[in-house]
Design a protein that fits this description.
By secondary structure, the chain is an alpha/beta fold. The chain has a domain of about 130 residues: Rossmann fold (3-Layer(aba) Sandwich), CATH 3.40.50. Helices cover about 45% and strands about 15% of the residues. It has a 4-stranded parallel β-sheet with strand order 3-4-5-6, sandwiched between helices. Strands 1-2 form a two-stranded parallel sheet. It comes from Sulfurisoma sediminicola.
Length: about 230
C-alpha cells in the first residue's frame, strides 16, 4: 500500500493507523508530495509503479461565490479534481488491463448529482471527471478493471467544516445554525462517519465488486431526493 499526501505529519499518522489495523511496517509506504503536480505524480508512481487498486482523493477547492473566482482558480480546481485523476488513471490502467485485475475509485462529491451553490469550482471540475469515467469504464471492465466514483454527502471531516463555514458566511448566520440547517435536510438525521465511507470504498476495491463499473455511488444519508 502506498499513500500520498502533502503533509508529512498527517501522512505518517495515517500510516500508523493502518499498521495498527494489521498492515506490517513494510506494507505501508508513504510519499510526501503534491499529487496535483507532475513531480508529485512521478514520486507516487516511482513508489508504486504497478498498483492493482487506485483511489483518487484530491482535496476539494474552497467554497465561495463564483464572482470572486479568477481563471487561475478555475484552472487549479480542474487540474486537481479532474486532470490529476485522469493522469493517474492513464499511468496505471494499462498495467491493470495486462494483469487482468484493477479497481479504480474516484472520490468526487454528492454535489455532482445535486450541486451546492458555494461549491461551483468542485461541481464543475468533478462533473468533468464523472463524464470521462463514464466512457472509459465501459472499455476496461472486459479486462476485469472497474472504474467507479464515490459521491460523499456530509461526513464529519475538515472539508465539511469548511463547507459549512462558507455557507454560514454567505447566509450571514452562525456556523452552528448552518450545520443544523444542513443536518435537517438529511433523512438519516446526522452527518456521516468516515468509517462508513471507508468500508464502501474498500468493497468497491474488492474482487467481489467486479460486475460494477462506471457507477456513481452516493453516500449521503438519503439527502438526494431523486430516484436515479
Amino acid at each position: 500500500m502506498t499513500i500520498v499526501a502533502r503533509g508529512a505529519e498527517a501522512l505518517e499518522a495515517t500510516a500508523a493507523e493502518l499498521r495498527k489495523l494489521g498492515a506490517g511496517d513494510t506494507a505501508v509506504a508513504t510519499v510526501v508530495a503534491d499529487i496535483t503536480t507532475p513531480a508529485g505524480r512521478a514520486a507516487a508512481l516511482a513508489a508504486c509503479p504497478a498498483p492493482d487498486i487506485l483511489v483518487n482523493n484530491a482535496g476539494g477547492p474552497p467554497p465561495g461565490d463564483f464572482r470572486d473566482w479568477s481563471r487561475d482558480d478555475w484552472l487549479k480546481a480542474i487540474d486537481a479534481n479532474m486532470l490529476t485523476p485522469i493522469e493517474l488513471i492513464k499511468a496505471t490502467v494499462d498495467g491493470m488491463i495486462g494483469r487482468r485485475f484493477g479497481r479504480i475509485v474516484n472520490i468526487t462529491s454528492g454535489a455532482v448529482k445535486a450541486p451546492i451553490d458555494v461549491l461551483g469550482l468542485s461541481n464543475g471540475a468533478r462533473s468533468g471527471l464523472t463524464g470521462f469515467v463514464a466512457g472509459l469504464a465501459r472499455k476496461t471492465v472486459g479486462h476485469n478493471v472497474t472504474i467507479n466514483n464515490l459521491l460523499p454527502g456530509f461526513f464529519a471531516t475538515d472539508r465539511m467544516q469548511a463547507v459549512i463555514g462558507g455557507q454560514a458566511k454567505s447566509k450571514g448566520i452562525s456556523y452552528e445554525a448552518a450545520l443544523a440547517e444542513r443536518v435537517a435536510t438529511i433523512p438519516a438525521g446526522r452527518v456521516g462517519d468516515p468509517a462508513e465511507f471507508g468500508a464502501a470504498c474498500a468493497w468497491l476495491c474488492s474482487a467481489q465488486a467486479g460486475y460494477i463499473t462506471g457507477q456513481n455511488w452516493l453516500l449521503d444519508g438519503g439527502a438526494y431526493p431523486g430516484t436515479f
